[in-house]
Write a structure and sequence with these properties.
heterotetramer, A mainly alpha (353), B mainly alpha (319), C alpha/beta (341), D alpha/beta (509), C: 341 residues, alpha/beta, six-stranded parallel beta sheet, six-stranded mixed beta sheet, 12 strands, 44% helix, globular, disordered N terminus, D: 509 residues, Rossmann fold, 2 domains, 17 helices, 32% helix, disordered C terminus, binds adenosine-5'-triphosphate, binds magnesium ion, repeat (chain D), Simple sugar transport system ATP-binding protein (chain D), sugar transport (chain D), membrane (chain D)
């Protein structure tokens, strides 16, 4: 039995790693077919990810919202819910952080936490709605979340245009006192936009792990996710747990918005299309096997790929879309872990004999 | 503007924008009725739009006005094949179906633009010369009142979509194929014991969904967008999924839901030109379709019953 | 633009050898059939004229996300590019940051100004879109048969307002009775919205629509083509924007004319200046009718003689300063009042 | 000797388990052949091999003397083999007709000819006395009718050899009687039957021969006439089994549960429990006897707070329960062994340890100020696994992978260990083998002897009569009579359960 558990642990690490390698190999094949030099392509890609202190800083910066979106997806997933509404929750979180960051004059020690909390609260409220409707009226959370995404998209941009408009399709900048930007981190990484949000991200990952695995509430949330009837039988309030789970997930998504609003951009645009980060979160959660550490690693990887894609394009002319293809293939490989298990299993057997 | 004039604007507009949603939602029904979640409809639509435009561009010199129609057929075939990726992953390899669908979306988005850049050397295509045009149906469009509302200024594809919804209803509820498809989505083990090939049925379901989503995307591209770029399909596939769920996985329900979306959308656009509604802040009109959907689901449509085995990979002998 | 021809030639060959110029597009990409494309055409021309190689001498980077703007700008600066363009006001903040971070590199911002920041390595390129829009407004007013004219904007913003107000001013100057129906799509990238809005406006009786809506405008063309197929009496027109959009209207030939905004000229011009050490750092470079930076497109087959004559008259009045074309809603109201007198 | 079915030396392995190890089963034409074995012995597996759902690693199958390869259920159908599965294979939202014709649909110009199909089914059901409504949806019909649909499915395909896998586990006594009649009728019509059941009485009453398997190995085949239940049980378990659990006379004390004038509605809003009165005293087992669907489920749900009551009162030691939440009710001293262990009793994806903690995870010592102490949880689980003989690789094993009997033991361990004032046991032994049943019965009596009140709800009259100190008969949502198990028998109870009355007035509530 011990061996089996151990094996399962090994698999949990092995599958994403093997998938990532397979995805990159497939990417190389596509580059070859497209008439590009894969060696050169990947070299510039890895340069763009880790080549310079600045590249590393940018990779980490790009990973923060991805990781939080991934945490949001994973948290809901672990409690039996599919939060496809991370995108919308991120947008309202972003707006809330920018509004608090712009509208108040406070010392940084208060201003930053307040803006961050506002983002979390906004995301939580946004996710509360599908959660509540599911709990109360048994409405499918997926469809409500999809609708809430659109509502968020149009509402945030309209609110900015009405109350926070600085022209040029963006809001006013936040005040210095609410900014997560850090000259220290920037200097460290040769003027990248790396900001303190990474600390919030790591804290969020720990919080997710702690809630789910260490608290009685987490035990309850997961139980409700697995079997509502049994949870009700055991005296748990199923509806309240569903709502809570969505709200917590939404809070993480809102934080992802704060990373953009208080960190990378310091303002919010009047978007007319989705940022895509919410959907990327699904990929991140999956590659990270819905575990806290896994998500951090996966988001680092995806964040790096995404920031480095223009670099690859710049140096070798390979269209940046290649990266999207590679990411898609990696997701397929992870999701089809059955195949990898089977192959690894055979290889293992062969080796043993 | 009087009321009839308003109707004569919004109904054709609704029919126009609903057609791609109807095709795609009907496709979704085939997949999900067989028990396979298909979040990948968005990507399939995108690939359909891509194929539709590229084919039209390549064919229009030789085929002229027939080019977009042939392109739609090509898109149907290509997307049926493209959907095999989802089928293999989620049926044979027992991947999480939602995740596999999401991956398909990423793949379609990346691959289509990658190929466009490879083929045309730029990030978006030219406009097609021949489109699926809006027409007024001879005879019918001359009927007083309803002729202008229902039979003028609408592409033929919209009527095909509506007819198809009824055809799909017949197939799903009246034919052996439909019964088997539904049984596989409700209780695959029971179907298996009755000698029905569960895996094969699910492949067929997913491939039909690919085909129809491909048609949906191609119809969108050849009648509405008329070229292909990264943002051409931006959320229509998700709306189609919503229409399918809203319509309770029923072809006529999905048709109604898609028309509802079309209507709400066209109202939100036309509203700016209609007295009274004009005074409502435009953002409220823009979000109205989505809010109304939520209210409808919550209020009078009630709980939607998904196929019971939806999302569960079938393993022989598992209980 | 050609004032320093000599200087350009004499020092040119030596300098051109190591002069490098780049541009960062917004998410539209260099073939957006709009200003990114225009800018790239200008840059390409500049590169070819000066014997630069694409990819090493002149080059563009397309951004796929807003967060890439800054890193793309810095890539050029780090790689020793002498001048980097940021195409579109969306890149304003990013150029500001990059310019501060790389004081030795020059940047140019298209469609907005950073003058007030006092950065002497940033040039701001602006256009008087209202002036060009005014002229196509004159055409529309002259050629409408229904006395109803439409305007479709991408996103309601100060920039697009310049198009709208200039256009309306042009219409009203010629034909005060003509009604202009305006609507914004709130998106530069929804052809389906474009066509739906166009459908509404045409259904309300308009026979000409001026679109300043980027990709959304494609839907306007689709709708116009659809209607024009219905027969002669149903013929409707579109006025294109940014580039000569005659092609977009074919084969049904629905493009009446286009309001061109010569981003290409501006880009070429500023690049030349930079190469000649006359980079207008810290300044605004404004391109209006006078500079041939905006105007009416060369494809004018669909425009009546009468209208062309009126266009010339009004152009002269604007150049002479007799007419100041309004940019904002407020200015337009003032302008309308002067007409009534 | 003429055999219709011969399965010779069949071996079937699952990863890590040999489910069938060289088993031989020979069925004569026209007989009812019983297949007997403990939970997990490999009976269903063997039958699934015969039906073509699984492929054996080794062995030979002959049908009517011909060697055959049954590669999938279609082949089995063609060979005239039909199977009624342990867990019904019915599509809930299809009609009876649709379920029966699935895969074999009569059509006219591409369209399913439902009318003809329904007619055929009606005829078939008349022929075998299997009354069903062809147009009813499965989700709306009783378990008994569902079973008849399953049988019709096989007959519709022209099956001559029918496999029944535990057909009686979920049936009421009446339905069981009917089923036995049907089986006899089928034999008369020339069919052969393989019957899997844990109920030795049934084997004794209808079967001709019986093949016994133990832990995947064939033990042998016996003629039913030449054996008795004790011998069968011993063969199956490998030791002697006591059917009638020994118990002392009860010494009931004060009333623990008192129900007065209780009215409860079911999910459709129909009154399922109507002005019901009942009391259960400390130190006694009160059994509720009744035909399924007479309000038992709603009664239990009302007591445990899973269903709102309409009116009346439920008190536990003078505390009113009907206004409390499920959690508060549980805390005030109720243990509940639910009738559907997969739906309510367990979170199948949780480990056994976590399931042991399902009712107490939030209390000390498993939790302190909201922080869970898994060490305590698993420590407790380990103790209980040992005490209740739950057969599991470890406390970290997923509940899903345990057999039904062991899952049930885990639930009982969890509920009993909390020392509740009142223990509600609903169908505690459904589908379990005799060994497991014996254990559970012993546990219930032990609890009674410790002075707890036990409310037993069971469709097995044997069980009710054996265990109860008093039997309350429920009919149409009311307790119609209370009888002393020592003075009654199955016939009398059956009569009462059907709404009849007793001649002689006895037992007080
Ligand atoms: N699908 C499966 N995968 C793996 N192992 C299985 C599977 N089905 C059955 N088994 C194994 O085969 C053995 C026999 O199981 P089977 O279901 O045949 O028992 P059974 O005799 O029918 O029990 P019961 O009386 O509880 O129905 C089990 O112990 C189990 O380990
Ligand atoms: N799919 C499966 N994979 C692995 N083992 C299985 C599987 N299904 C059943 N088993 C094993 O089969 C054995 C018996 O299971 P089975 O479900 O037949 O028990 P049961 O008492 O009949 O339960 P139930 O009351 O649910 O019918 C158990 O030991 C279990 O571990
Ligand atoms: Mg069993
Ligand atoms: Mg069994």
């Amino acid at each position: 039995m011990n061996k089996l558990v151990k094996n399962e642990r090994v698999m949990m690490i092995l599958i994403p790693v093997v998938s990532a390698i397979l995805g990159l190999i497939a990417g190389a094949v596509i580059m070859l077919l497209g008439g590009y030099d894969p060696m050169l392509g990947y070299q510039s890609l890895f340069d763009g990810m880790f080549g310079t202190p600045k590249a590393i800083g940018e990779t980490i910066r790009a990973m923060t919202p991805l990781a939080l979106a991934g945490i949001a997806v994973a948290f809901a997933y672990k409690t039996g819910l599919f939060n496809i509404g991370v995108e919308g929750q991120l947008l309202v979180g972003w707006l809330a952080s920018v509004w608090v960051g712009y509208a108040f004059d406070l010392p940084a020690v208060i201003h930053i936490p307040l803006a961050v909390l506002a983002a979390a609260a906004a995301g939580a409220v946004w996710a509360f709605i599908p959660g509540f409707l599911k709990a109360k009226f048994h409405v499918h959370e997926v469809i409500v979340s999809i609708m809430m995404n659109y509502i968020a998209l149009y509402t945030t941009s309209s609110l900015i245009r009405t109350y926070l408009y600085a022209g040029n399709e963006k809001s006013y900048d936040i005040k210095e006192s609410a900014s997560l930007a850090s000259s220290f981190l920037a200097q460290l990484t040769d003027n990248s936009r790396l900001h303190y949000g990474i600390l919030i991200t790591i804290a969020a990952a720990i919080v997710m792990w702690f809630i789910l695995n260490k608290t009685a509430k987490g035990f309850e949330l997961r139980a409700v996710g697995f079997n509502q009837h049994a949870s009700q039988y055991a005296g748990m309030n199923v509806g309240r747990n569903i709502v809570l789970s969505m709200a917590i997930s939404g809070a993480f998504a809102g934080l992802a918005g704060a990373m953009e609003g208080l960190g990378t951009f310091q303002y919010m645009g009047t978007f007319t299309a989705f940022t895509g980060t919410g959907f990327d979160g699904i990929a991140v959660a999956l590659l990270g096997a819905n575990s806290a550490i896994g998500i951090l690693l996966a988001s680092f990887f995806f964040g790096g790929l995404q920031t480095a894609a223009p670099q690859m394009n710049f140096m070798t002319g390979v269209p940046s879309e290649l990266i999207q293809i590679v990411i898609a293939l990696i997701i397929f490989f992870v999701a089809s872990s059955y195949l990898i298990r089977w192959v690894l299993g055979r290889a293992g057997k062969g080796g043993a004999k | 503007m009087n009321f009839l004039e308003v109707l004569a604007i919004i109904i054709p507009a609704a029919l126009y924008s609903a057609a791609p949603l109807i095709f795609t939602a009907l496709g979704g029904i085939f997949s999900e009725r067989s028990g396979v979640v298909n979040i990948g409809l968005e990507g399939l639509m995108m690939f359909g739009a891509f194929t539709g435009i590229v084919s039209t561009l390549l064919l229009q010199d030789s085929l002229g006005a027939w080019a977009p129609w042939v392109a739609i057929v090509i898109a149907a075939v290509v997307c049926a094949v493209f959907s095999l990726i989802h089928a293999v992953a989620s049926i044979t390899l027992k991947a999480d179906q939602t995740v596999s669908g999401v991956a398909l979306n990423f793949l379609a988005a990346g691959l289509s633009i990658f190929l466009i850049k490879k083929i045309f050397g730029k990030g978006q295509t030219d406009f097609i010369q021949f489109r699926i045009d809006k027409v007024s149906i001879p005879g019918l469009s001359d009927i007083p009142v309803i002729g202008k509302i229902l039979f003028s200024n609408v592409p033929i594809t919209s009527y095909i979509a509506i007819a198809l919804a009824f055809a799909v209803w017949y197939i799903i509820y009246k034919t052996p194929f439909g019964l088997r498809l539904r049984s596989v989505g409700e209780h695959p083990m029971a179907a298996d014991t009755m000698g029905i090939k569960v895996v094969r049925m699910r492949y067929v379901g997913v491939m039909i969904s690919g085909m129809l989503a491909g048609i949906g995307g191609a119809v969108y591209a050849t009648s509405i967008a008329t070229n292909f770029a990264a943002g051409t399909i931006a959320g229509q596939g998700f709306l189609a999924i919503a229409a399918m769920i809203f319509g309770k996985w029923h072809p006529i329900g999905a048709l109604g839901a898609a028309m509802f979306f079309g209507l709400a959308q066209s109202l939100s656009i036309t509203g700016a030109q209609i007295p009274v509604i004009q005074d409502i802040p435009s953002v409220l009109l823009t979000i109205a379709p989505y809010v109304l959907t939520i209210l409808a689901l919550t209020g009078f449509v009630g709980r939607a019953e998904a196929p019971k085995a939806l999302g569960v990979p079938y393993e022989k002998g598992r209980r | 633009a050609c004032g320093s021809d000599d200087a350009g030639k004499s020092g040119g060959d030596k300098k051109a050898a190591d002069f490098k110029v780049g541009m960062v597009t917004d998410t539209g990409g260099v073939d957006d059939k709009s200003f990114n494309q225009s800018a790239w055409e200008g840059l390409t021309k500049f590169g070819k004229d000066n014997g630069l190689d694409e990819g090493t001498g002149y080059k563009y980077l397309q951004s796929t996300k807003a967060s890439e703007y800054e890193s793309n700008l810095s890539k050029f600066a780090e790689s020793g590019y002498n001048l980097t363009y940021g195409i579109g006001f969306l890149l304003k903040e990013d150029i500001k940051k990059a310019a501060k971070q790389y004081p030795d590199a020059n940047f140019a911002l298209v469609d907005d100004t950073l003058k007030s920041e006092n950065l002497d390595n940033v040039a701001s390129i602006l256009f008087k879109e209202e002036q060009g829009s005014f002229l196509v407004g004159v055409v529309a007013a002259k050629q409408t048969k229904t006395n109803k004219i439409g305007f479709i904007g991408g996103v309601e913003s100060p920039l697009i307002k310049k198009f709208e107000n200039g256009f309306k001013a042009g219409v009203k100057s010629v034909n005060p009775d003509a009604e202009v129906i305006s609507q914004y799509a709130e998106s530069f990238n929804s052809p389906e919205k474009g066509s739906a809005i166009a459908s509404t406006i045409y259904s309300k009786g308009a026979d000409i629509i001026y679109q300043a809506a980027g990709g959304t405008g494609n839907g306007v063309f689709t709708e116009a083509k659809n209607r024009s197929k219905g027969g002669k009496d149903k013929k409707v027109w579109v006025i294109g924007v940014d580039r000569d959009q005659h092609e977009e209207g074919m084969p049904e030939n629905v493009t009446l004319t286009s309001m061109v905004k010569r981003v290409d000229l501006a880009v070429e011009d500023v690049a030349k200046k930079a190469m000649d050490d006359k980079f207008p750092g810290g300044k605004e470079v404004v391109f209006g009718l006078k500079e041939d930076g905006v105007g009416i497109a060369p494809s004018q087959d669909n425009v009546s003689k009468d209208a062309l004559k009126a266009v010339d008259e009004y152009k002269q009045k604007i150049l002479d300063g007799d007419i100041t074309v309004p940019q904002t809603d407020k200015e337009f109201k003032e302008f309308e009042k002067t007409l009534k007198k | 000797m003429e055999y219709v079915i011969e399965m010779l030396d069949i071996r079937k392995e699952f990863p890590g388990i040999v489910a069938n190890d060289n088993i031989t089963l020979q069925v004569k034409k026209g007989e009812i052949h019983a297949l007997l074995g403990e939970n997990g012995a490999g009976k269903s597996t063997l039958m699934n091999v015969l039906f073509g759902l699984y492929q054996p690693e080794k062995g030979q199958i002959r049908v009517n003397g011909q060697e055959v390869k049954i590669t999938d259920p279609n082949v089995a159908n063609d060979l005239g083999i039909g199977m009624v599965h342990q867990h019904f294979m019915l599509v809930q939202n299809f009609t009876v007709t649709e379920n029966i014709i699935l895969g074999n649909e009569p059509t006219r110009t591409g369209k399913i000819n439902i009318k003809k199909a329904a007619q055929d089914i009606q005829e078939l059901s008349n022929q075998y006395g299997l009354s069903v409504d062809p147009y009813a949806k499965i989700q709306d019909i009783s378990v008994g009718m569902q079973q008849r649909v399953e049988i019709l499915k096989t007959l519709y395909r022209g099956a001559d050899i029918l496999i029944f896998d535990e057909p009686t586990a979920a049936l009421t006594p009446q339905e069981i009687t009917e089923l036995i009649q049907i089986m006899k009728k089928l034999i008369q019509e020339g069919k052969s039957i393989i019957l899997i059941t844990h109920k030795l009485k049934e084997i004794m009453s209808v079967c001709d021969r019986c093949t016994i398997i133990r832990k995947g190995v064939g033990v042998g085949t016996v003629n039913v006439q030449e054996t008795n239940p004790d011998e069968l049980a011993a063969l199956m378990v490998g030791r002697e089994v006591h059917f009638k659990t020994e118990k002392k006379t009860a010494t009931p004390k004060e009333a623990v549960l008192t129900i007065k004038e209780l009215v409860v509605e079911d999910s459709r809003g129909v009154e399922a429990v109507s002005s019901l009165d009942l009391s259960v005293r400390a130190g006694e087992i009160v059994g509720i006897a009744g035909v399924d669907g007479n309000g038992q489920t709603e009664l239990i749900e009302a007591i445990t707070g899973l269903r709102k009551i309409k009116s009346g009162s439920i008190t536990l030691k003078n505390q009113e329960l009907s206004t409390l939440s499920t959690r508060k009710i549980t805390e005030s001293g109720i243990g509940h062994i639910p009738q559907d262990r997969h739906k309510h009793g367990l979170v199948l994806d949780y480990t056994i340890g976590e399931n042991i903690g399902l009712q107490t995870y939030y209390q000390k010592p498993m939790s302190k100020s909201g922080i869970l102490n898994y060490k305590e949880m698993y420590k407790k689980a380990k103790e209980l696994i040992a005490e209740y003989d739950v057969r599991t690789p470890s406390e970290y094993t997923q509940a899903r992978s345990l057999s039904g009997g062991n899952q049930q033991k885990a639930i009982i361990a969890r509920e009993v260990d909390r020392s509740p004032e009142l223990l509600i046991a609903a169908q505690p032994t459904r589908g379990l083998d005799v060994g497991a049943i014996e254990f559970i019965h012993k546990k219930l009596i032990e609890e009674r002897d410790k002075g707890r009140a036990v409310l037993l709800v069971s469709l097995e009259l044997d069980e009710v009569i054996n265990l109860s100190d008093r039997i309350a008969v429920i009919y149409e949502g009311k307790i119609v009579d209370i009888v002393d198990p020592k003075e009654t028998n199955e016939q009398e109870l059956g009569l009462l359960m059907a709404g009849g009355t007793r001649e002689k007035a006895g037992g007080t509530a």
